[in-house]
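Session log. Operator J.P. requested a structure for one protein chain; no other inputs attached. Running the standard single-chain path with C-alpha coordinate output.
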Amino acid sequence: MREFTYRSRDGDVKVLININHGEALERITKDYTGCAAYVSRNIVNRVKIACPVIPIVDGEEGKSIETALSIVRSAHEMGIDRDGLFIGIGGGSVLDVVGFSASIYLRGVDYVNVPTTMLSMVDASIGGKTGVNALGLKNVIGVIRQPRYVIIDLSFLDSLPMPNYIDGFAEVIKYGVTMDRELLDLVMGSADRLLNRDYAILEEVIHRSLRDKANVVEVDELDRGGSRAVLNYGHTVGHAIEAVTSFSISHGKAVALGMVCEARVGVRLGYTPKDVPDLLIRALSMFNLTSRVSVDVDRLVNAMLRDKKRSGDFIRLPVVTDVGRWDLVRVRVKDLADLVISECRSML
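Structure written below.
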Protein backbone atom coordinates (compact mmCIF):
# COMPACT_ATOMS: atom_id res chain seq x y z
CA MET A 1 0.00 0.00 0.00
CA ARG A 2 1.21 3.51 -0.84
CA GLU A 3 -0.13 6.85 0.28
CA PHE A 4 0.57 10.52 -0.11
CA THR A 5 -1.07 13.84 0.69
CA TYR A 6 -1.48 16.87 -1.52
CA ARG A 7 -2.41 20.38 -0.47
CA SER A 8 -5.50 22.30 -1.57
CA ARG A 9 -7.41 25.40 -0.57
CA ASP A 10 -10.01 23.03 0.95
CA GLY A 11 -7.35 21.36 3.12
CA ASP A 12 -5.11 18.33 2.71
CA VAL A 13 -6.25 15.45 0.51
CA LYS A 14 -5.07 11.97 1.50
CA VAL A 15 -4.61 9.43 -1.29
CA LEU A 16 -4.47 5.72 -0.39
CA ILE A 17 -3.40 3.27 -3.12
CA ASN A 18 -3.89 -0.50 -3.07
CA ILE A 19 -6.07 -0.70 0.02
CA ASN A 20 -9.37 -2.46 0.78
CA HIS A 21 -12.05 0.18 0.36
CA GLY A 22 -14.29 -1.25 3.08
CA GLU A 23 -11.59 -1.23 5.73
CA ALA A 24 -10.47 2.28 4.79
CA LEU A 25 -14.01 3.67 4.81
CA GLU A 26 -14.77 2.05 8.16
CA ARG A 27 -12.00 4.12 9.71
CA ILE A 28 -12.83 7.33 7.84
CA THR A 29 -16.58 7.40 8.49
CA LYS A 30 -16.08 7.27 12.28
CA ASP A 31 -15.15 10.97 12.13
CA TYR A 32 -18.53 11.98 10.65
CA THR A 33 -22.08 12.24 11.97
CA GLY A 34 -23.47 10.25 9.07
CA CYS A 35 -22.64 9.04 5.59
CA ALA A 36 -24.20 8.04 2.30
CA ALA A 37 -22.52 6.07 -0.48
CA TYR A 38 -23.62 6.73 -4.06
CA VAL A 39 -22.51 3.79 -6.15
CA SER A 40 -22.53 2.84 -9.81
CA ARG A 41 -25.47 0.47 -10.15
CA ASN A 42 -23.20 -2.06 -11.90
CA ILE A 43 -21.06 -2.71 -8.82
CA VAL A 44 -23.45 -2.31 -5.89
CA ASN A 45 -22.98 -5.95 -4.89
CA ARG A 46 -19.20 -5.44 -4.53
CA VAL A 47 -19.47 -2.59 -2.03
CA LYS A 48 -19.17 -3.58 1.63
CA ILE A 49 -19.59 -0.58 3.90
CA ALA A 50 -21.80 0.39 6.85
CA CYS A 51 -23.24 3.52 5.19
CA PRO A 52 -26.52 3.43 3.25
CA VAL A 53 -25.74 2.47 -0.36
CA ILE A 54 -27.71 4.26 -3.07
CA PRO A 55 -27.29 3.00 -6.66
CA ILE A 56 -27.01 5.67 -9.35
CA VAL A 57 -26.75 5.58 -13.11
CA ASP A 58 -23.21 5.92 -14.40
CA GLY A 59 -21.86 7.20 -17.73
CA GLU A 60 -22.96 10.38 -19.48
CA GLU A 61 -26.62 9.43 -18.95
CA GLY A 62 -26.22 9.69 -15.19
CA LYS A 63 -23.97 12.73 -15.16
CA SER A 64 -26.86 15.18 -15.05
CA ILE A 65 -28.30 17.92 -12.92
CA GLU A 66 -31.26 15.62 -12.31
CA THR A 67 -28.98 13.00 -10.76
CA ALA A 68 -27.37 15.67 -8.58
CA LEU A 69 -30.77 16.82 -7.34
CA SER A 70 -31.78 13.23 -6.56
CA ILE A 71 -28.60 12.83 -4.50
CA VAL A 72 -29.34 16.02 -2.59
CA ARG A 73 -32.91 14.87 -1.98
CA SER A 74 -31.83 11.47 -0.66
CA ALA A 75 -29.19 12.98 1.64
CA HIS A 76 -31.78 15.37 3.07
CA GLU A 77 -34.26 12.54 3.61
CA MET A 78 -31.58 10.52 5.44
CA GLY A 79 -30.82 13.46 7.69
CA ILE A 80 -27.22 13.99 6.56
CA ASP A 81 -26.06 17.21 8.23
CA ARG A 82 -23.14 19.60 7.69
CA ASP A 83 -20.79 17.15 9.41
CA GLY A 84 -21.87 14.24 7.24
CA LEU A 85 -19.99 12.57 4.41
CA PHE A 86 -20.76 11.68 0.79
CA ILE A 87 -18.94 8.75 -0.79
CA GLY A 88 -18.75 8.30 -4.56
CA ILE A 89 -17.94 4.79 -5.78
CA GLY A 90 -17.68 4.23 -9.53
CA GLY A 91 -16.13 5.58 -12.69
CA GLY A 92 -15.37 9.20 -13.51
CA SER A 93 -18.95 10.24 -14.19
CA VAL A 94 -20.07 8.94 -10.78
CA LEU A 95 -17.22 10.73 -9.01
CA ASP A 96 -18.02 13.96 -10.87
CA VAL A 97 -21.71 14.01 -9.98
CA VAL A 98 -21.23 12.90 -6.36
CA GLY A 99 -18.45 15.44 -5.81
CA PHE A 100 -20.61 18.18 -7.29
CA SER A 101 -23.59 17.17 -5.17
CA ALA A 102 -21.44 17.19 -2.02
CA SER A 103 -20.20 20.66 -2.95
CA ILE A 104 -23.68 22.17 -3.16
CA TYR A 105 -25.44 20.23 -0.38
CA LEU A 106 -25.82 22.49 2.69
CA ARG A 107 -23.17 24.73 1.05
CA GLY A 108 -20.69 21.90 1.06
CA VAL A 109 -20.02 18.64 2.89
CA ASP A 110 -16.92 16.46 2.73
CA TYR A 111 -16.73 13.67 0.18
CA VAL A 112 -14.56 10.66 -0.60
CA ASN A 113 -13.71 9.32 -4.05
CA VAL A 114 -13.48 5.57 -4.57
CA PRO A 115 -12.70 5.12 -8.29
CA THR A 116 -13.43 1.69 -9.78
CA THR A 117 -12.02 1.97 -13.33
CA MET A 118 -8.43 2.41 -14.44
CA LEU A 119 -9.31 5.72 -16.10
CA SER A 120 -10.94 7.16 -12.97
CA MET A 121 -8.12 5.85 -10.75
CA VAL A 122 -5.41 7.72 -12.66
CA ASP A 123 -7.40 10.81 -13.64
CA ALA A 124 -10.86 11.74 -12.35
CA SER A 125 -10.27 10.70 -8.74
CA ILE A 126 -8.10 13.70 -7.88
CA GLY A 127 -8.00 17.34 -8.89
CA GLY A 128 -11.35 18.52 -7.56
CA LYS A 129 -13.08 19.23 -10.87
CA THR A 130 -16.71 18.25 -10.38
CA GLY A 131 -19.62 18.88 -12.67
CA VAL A 132 -22.73 17.75 -14.47
CA ASN A 133 -24.25 18.06 -17.91
CA ALA A 134 -27.30 20.26 -18.43
CA LEU A 135 -29.14 22.07 -21.23
CA GLY A 136 -27.56 19.68 -23.71
CA LEU A 137 -24.07 20.91 -22.74
CA LYS A 138 -21.24 18.83 -21.22
CA ASN A 139 -19.91 19.91 -17.80
CA VAL A 140 -21.70 23.24 -18.10
CA ILE A 141 -22.40 23.31 -14.35
CA GLY A 142 -19.64 22.54 -11.88
CA VAL A 143 -17.23 23.66 -9.21
CA ILE A 144 -13.66 22.89 -8.17
CA ARG A 145 -13.74 21.32 -4.73
CA GLN A 146 -11.36 18.66 -3.49
CA PRO A 147 -12.27 15.33 -1.88
CA ARG A 148 -11.02 14.63 1.62
CA TYR A 149 -9.79 11.15 0.70
CA VAL A 150 -9.15 9.14 -2.45
CA ILE A 151 -9.22 5.37 -1.98
CA ILE A 152 -7.75 3.19 -4.72
CA ASP A 153 -8.86 -0.44 -4.32
CA LEU A 154 -7.17 -2.39 -7.12
CA SER A 155 -9.55 -5.34 -6.72
CA PHE A 156 -12.19 -3.35 -8.65
CA LEU A 157 -9.99 -3.79 -11.73
CA ASP A 158 -10.19 -7.59 -11.61
CA SER A 159 -13.60 -7.78 -13.28
CA LEU A 160 -13.25 -4.71 -15.50
CA PRO A 161 -13.62 -5.65 -19.20
CA MET A 162 -10.32 -5.33 -21.05
CA PRO A 163 -11.44 -2.45 -23.33
CA ASN A 164 -12.43 -0.43 -20.26
CA TYR A 165 -9.27 -1.37 -18.43
CA ILE A 166 -6.81 -0.35 -21.15
CA ASP A 167 -8.64 2.95 -21.68
CA GLY A 168 -6.96 4.43 -18.62
CA PHE A 169 -3.46 3.98 -19.99
CA ALA A 170 -3.96 6.85 -22.45
CA GLU A 171 -3.94 9.23 -19.48
CA VAL A 172 -0.94 7.46 -17.92
CA ILE A 173 1.01 7.82 -21.17
CA LYS A 174 -0.06 11.48 -21.27
CA TYR A 175 1.57 12.09 -17.88
CA GLY A 176 4.69 10.32 -19.07
CA VAL A 177 5.19 12.10 -22.38
CA THR A 178 4.47 15.56 -20.95
CA MET A 179 5.93 15.45 -17.43
CA ASP A 180 7.54 12.19 -16.43
CA ARG A 181 9.86 10.36 -18.82
CA GLU A 182 10.64 7.71 -16.19
CA LEU A 183 6.93 6.88 -15.96
CA LEU A 184 6.70 6.49 -19.74
CA ASP A 185 9.75 4.20 -19.73
CA LEU A 186 8.23 2.19 -16.88
CA VAL A 187 4.91 1.73 -18.68
CA MET A 188 6.50 0.75 -21.98
CA GLY A 189 8.88 -1.65 -20.25
CA SER A 190 6.11 -3.24 -18.18
CA ALA A 191 3.27 -3.43 -20.69
CA ASP A 192 2.83 -7.21 -20.38
CA ARG A 193 2.63 -7.05 -16.59
CA LEU A 194 0.20 -4.14 -16.75
CA LEU A 195 -2.01 -5.94 -19.26
CA ASN A 196 -2.03 -8.95 -16.91
CA ARG A 197 -3.12 -6.61 -14.06
CA ASP A 198 -0.09 -7.27 -11.88
CA TYR A 199 -0.90 -5.41 -8.65
CA ALA A 200 2.71 -4.58 -7.83
CA ILE A 201 3.38 -2.68 -11.06
CA LEU A 202 -0.14 -1.22 -11.10
CA GLU A 203 0.38 0.24 -7.65
CA GLU A 204 3.60 1.90 -8.78
CA VAL A 205 2.16 3.25 -12.05
CA ILE A 206 -1.02 4.59 -10.43
CA HIS A 207 0.95 6.15 -7.57
CA ARG A 208 3.32 7.90 -9.95
CA SER A 209 0.49 9.09 -12.22
CA LEU A 210 -1.49 10.54 -9.34
CA ARG A 211 1.60 12.17 -7.84
CA ASP A 212 2.30 13.83 -11.19
CA LYS A 213 -1.25 15.15 -11.42
CA ALA A 214 -1.32 16.25 -7.78
CA ASN A 215 1.87 18.28 -8.28
CA VAL A 216 0.12 20.20 -11.06
CA VAL A 217 -3.06 20.68 -9.03
CA GLU A 218 -1.13 22.09 -6.08
CA VAL A 219 0.39 24.77 -8.32
CA ASP A 220 -2.73 25.64 -10.33
CA GLU A 221 -5.74 24.29 -8.46
CA LEU A 222 -8.28 26.68 -10.00
CA ASP A 223 -6.97 26.26 -13.55
CA ARG A 224 -6.09 29.93 -13.91
CA GLY A 225 -2.29 30.00 -13.92
CA GLY A 226 -1.67 27.90 -17.02
CA SER A 227 0.12 24.99 -15.35
CA ARG A 228 -2.98 22.81 -15.27
CA ALA A 229 -3.24 23.03 -19.06
CA VAL A 230 -0.77 20.15 -19.34
CA LEU A 231 -3.53 17.83 -18.14
CA ASN A 232 -5.40 18.66 -21.35
CA TYR A 233 -2.66 17.43 -23.67
CA GLY A 234 -4.38 15.52 -26.47
CA HIS A 235 -7.78 16.66 -25.24
CA THR A 236 -8.35 19.54 -27.66
CA VAL A 237 -8.56 17.06 -30.52
CA GLY A 238 -9.67 14.18 -28.27
CA HIS A 239 -12.75 15.93 -26.94
CA ALA A 240 -13.68 16.92 -30.49
CA ILE A 241 -13.44 13.27 -31.58
CA GLU A 242 -15.76 12.31 -28.73
CA ALA A 243 -18.23 15.04 -29.69
CA VAL A 244 -18.47 14.26 -33.42
CA THR A 245 -18.82 10.52 -32.76
CA SER A 246 -21.54 11.11 -30.14
CA PHE A 247 -19.24 9.54 -27.54
CA SER A 248 -19.22 6.18 -29.31
CA ILE A 249 -15.42 6.34 -29.11
CA SER A 250 -14.04 5.75 -25.63
CA HIS A 251 -12.31 8.62 -23.85
CA GLY A 252 -8.98 6.80 -23.79
CA LYS A 253 -8.94 6.08 -27.51
CA ALA A 254 -10.07 9.62 -28.33
CA VAL A 255 -7.32 11.13 -26.18
CA ALA A 256 -4.76 8.69 -27.62
CA LEU A 257 -5.55 9.82 -31.16
CA GLY A 258 -5.65 13.40 -29.94
CA MET A 259 -2.15 13.13 -28.49
CA VAL A 260 -0.69 11.73 -31.70
CA CYS A 261 -2.42 14.44 -33.73
CA GLU A 262 -1.32 17.24 -31.41
CA ALA A 263 2.24 15.85 -31.38
CA ARG A 264 2.29 16.07 -35.18
CA VAL A 265 0.97 19.62 -34.96
CA GLY A 266 3.66 20.40 -32.37
CA VAL A 267 6.33 19.17 -34.80
CA ARG A 268 5.00 21.44 -37.54
CA LEU A 269 4.91 24.39 -35.15
CA GLY A 270 8.57 23.77 -34.33
CA TYR A 271 8.14 22.89 -30.65
CA THR A 272 8.00 19.08 -30.61
CA PRO A 273 10.91 16.79 -31.58
CA LYS A 274 10.21 14.79 -34.74
CA ASP A 275 10.45 11.41 -33.00
CA VAL A 276 7.72 12.11 -30.43
CA PRO A 277 4.68 11.17 -32.60
CA ASP A 278 6.20 7.76 -33.41
CA LEU A 279 7.15 7.24 -29.76
CA LEU A 280 3.56 7.94 -28.75
CA ILE A 281 2.25 5.53 -31.38
CA ARG A 282 4.56 2.77 -30.06
CA ALA A 283 3.51 3.33 -26.45
CA LEU A 284 -0.21 3.57 -27.20
CA SER A 285 -0.12 0.56 -29.53
CA MET A 286 1.03 -1.60 -26.63
CA PHE A 287 -2.43 -1.00 -25.14
CA ASN A 288 -4.37 -1.20 -28.41
CA LEU A 289 -5.23 2.50 -28.27
CA THR A 290 -4.28 3.58 -31.79
CA SER A 291 -7.01 2.09 -33.98
CA ARG A 292 -8.33 4.51 -36.59
CA VAL A 293 -11.79 6.01 -36.30
CA SER A 294 -14.09 7.22 -39.04
CA VAL A 295 -14.48 10.96 -38.50
CA ASP A 296 -15.53 13.81 -40.75
CA VAL A 297 -12.45 16.02 -40.38
CA ASP A 298 -14.37 19.22 -41.15
CA ARG A 299 -16.85 18.46 -38.38
CA LEU A 300 -13.94 17.57 -36.10
CA VAL A 301 -12.32 20.94 -36.69
CA ASN A 302 -15.59 22.77 -36.04
CA ALA A 303 -16.01 20.91 -32.74
CA MET A 304 -12.38 21.53 -31.80
CA LEU A 305 -12.73 25.26 -32.32
CA ARG A 306 -15.37 25.38 -29.58
CA ASP A 307 -12.75 24.21 -27.09
CA LYS A 308 -12.87 25.95 -23.70
CA LYS A 309 -9.20 26.96 -24.02
CA ARG A 310 -10.03 29.26 -26.94
CA SER A 311 -9.75 32.99 -26.37
CA GLY A 312 -10.81 35.13 -29.31
CA ASP A 313 -8.77 34.21 -32.38
CA PHE A 314 -6.28 32.14 -30.38
CA ILE A 315 -6.24 28.88 -28.45
CA ARG A 316 -3.87 27.85 -25.66
CA LEU A 317 -2.31 24.56 -26.65
CA PRO A 318 0.01 22.45 -24.46
CA VAL A 319 2.86 21.05 -26.58
CA VAL A 320 5.60 18.53 -25.82
CA THR A 321 9.03 20.16 -26.13
CA ASP A 322 10.91 16.99 -25.21
CA VAL A 323 9.83 13.67 -23.70
CA GLY A 324 8.83 14.59 -20.15
CA ARG A 325 8.74 18.35 -20.84
CA TRP A 326 6.06 20.65 -22.14
CA ASP A 327 5.14 24.27 -22.75
CA LEU A 328 1.95 26.24 -23.30
CA VAL A 329 1.72 28.17 -26.57
CA ARG A 330 -0.82 30.47 -28.16
CA VAL A 331 -1.83 29.31 -31.62
CA ARG A 332 -4.06 31.17 -34.02
CA VAL A 333 -7.31 29.23 -34.34
CA LYS A 334 -7.23 29.18 -38.12
CA ASP A 335 -3.62 27.96 -38.14
CA LEU A 336 -4.46 25.13 -35.75
CA ALA A 337 -7.44 24.10 -37.87
CA ASP A 338 -5.30 24.00 -41.02
CA LEU A 339 -2.59 21.97 -39.26
CA VAL A 340 -5.04 19.40 -37.91
CA ILE A 341 -6.48 18.92 -41.38
CA SER A 342 -3.07 18.54 -43.02
CA GLU A 343 -1.30 16.50 -40.33
CA CYS A 344 -4.09 14.31 -38.92
CA ARG A 345 -6.44 13.50 -41.80
CA SER A 346 -4.53 10.26 -42.54
CA MET A 347 -5.14 8.86 -39.06
CA LEU A 348 -8.84 9.68 -38.88
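Operator note: The mean pLDDT is 94.
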